[in-house]
Amino acid sequence: MAGREARIALVGATGTVGSQIAELIGERNFPYSDLKLFARDSAGQMVEAGERSLPVARLNNAQDLSAFDVAFLAIPLHEAAEIIEAQPGPALIDLSAATVPPHDGAAIVAPGLTARERIVQLGRGQTFGVPHPAAQVIATILQVLRSGGFAAASIMLSASTAGHNGVSELFQQSADLLNAHLELDDEPQVSFNVFAPQSARELARAFAAQIRVLGADSTRLSLDIVRVPAFHGTGVALFLPADDESREWAERLRSAPGLIVVANDDAAGFVNAVGQEGAITRISLDDSGAAIWCAFDAARLAALTAVWVAETLSE
Q: CB neighbours of 304 closer than 8 A, spacing ≥ 6?
């Protein structure tokens, strides 16, 4: 891409994260010579990319991407795996990697944790995996606090974690329950309920592996994952025992990339985090250690990381 503007493809442009990527490309005035939007089942729709409204084309196969420099894959894991295996040519920015352990051939990267020079060095033809924002936030905190001791975290996932279908399911179940019409059959109750999803253990292992690849020590990190009845937003409650440097932790968090440190408890909820480009963070310190609360818009943060990778490649 040296000396010219990039040719960009966005696969999954109508999804929760894909639409955020399209929006960010427009907002950040990303320099491109061509931006083409793809989807499997939403061909013909229009998606906003800044001040432009662009049509969505159907992606027939991986070779449809061969003419591009960078392709965002904001699609389910099995669909992304087919494209990655085909190696159509562009640098692939894989957002489906957020829920699986890192694998050979994919570089898990994130702003503030990965040097830009490494991304540029890997360059065209490389697959870049976008970590789950919860793993990215935890890795950032552990790195900036230089904590290698025991830590425990509860990760709270909202309905939007499952995309548009998850939000629709929560809305429908909430309406049915309030009207005494809820019939679950074999489905879990997601409305007015907090529960561990069936994939909680697999997700915890994947997040721990991503945290480790991002450069933070996760060998003594205990993770728990639950679903909460919120439409949008994700939360992380992180607990660290006190050590000799605990008094410096609050100040270190204020200098950490991607964290918005607040003192007001009322400004640290899921609703406050929607649309923010950082994790709203609050720290409570006492002699026993620190309780750190983070609320963030996971779709927004994942999209920001993906666009950051593309911007770095185009520099």
A: 24, 111, 277
Share of the chain above pLDDT 90, in %: 71
User: What is the C-alpha separation between 170 and 314, in angstroms, rounded?
Assistant: 39
Q: Are residues 171 and 255 in the same domain?
A: yes
The verdict on 31 and 15 lying in the same domain is: yes
133-153 residue pLDDT tens: 999 999 999 999 987 789 999
Judgement on whether residues 293 and 170 belong to the same structural domain of the protein: yes
Flag whether pLDDT at 15 surpasses 60. yes
Domain holding 26, by residue range, is 6-131+302-314
Residue 103: band (very low, low, confident or very high) from pLDDT cuts 50, 70, 90: confident
pTM confidence score: 0.92
Classify burial at 300, counting beta carbons within 10 Å of its beta carbon; exposed 0-12, middle 13-18, buried 19 or more: buried
220 burial class (0-12, 13-18, 19+ CB within 10 angstroms)? Answer: exposed
Q: Is the pLDDT of residue 105 over 80?
A: no
Nearest in space to 213 (alpha carbons), one of 80, 291, 44, 97: 97
Packing angle of the helix pair 200-213, 133-145 (nearest 10 deg)? 50
Amino acid identity at 131:
P
Which pLDDT band, with edges at 50, 70 and 90, does 268 fall under? confident
What counts of helices (H) and strands (E) characterise the chain? Answer: 9, 14
Count up the domains in the chain and report the number.
2
Give the CA distances from residue 98 to residues 80, 139, 305, in Å, rounded to whole numbers and listed in that order: 12, 14, 11
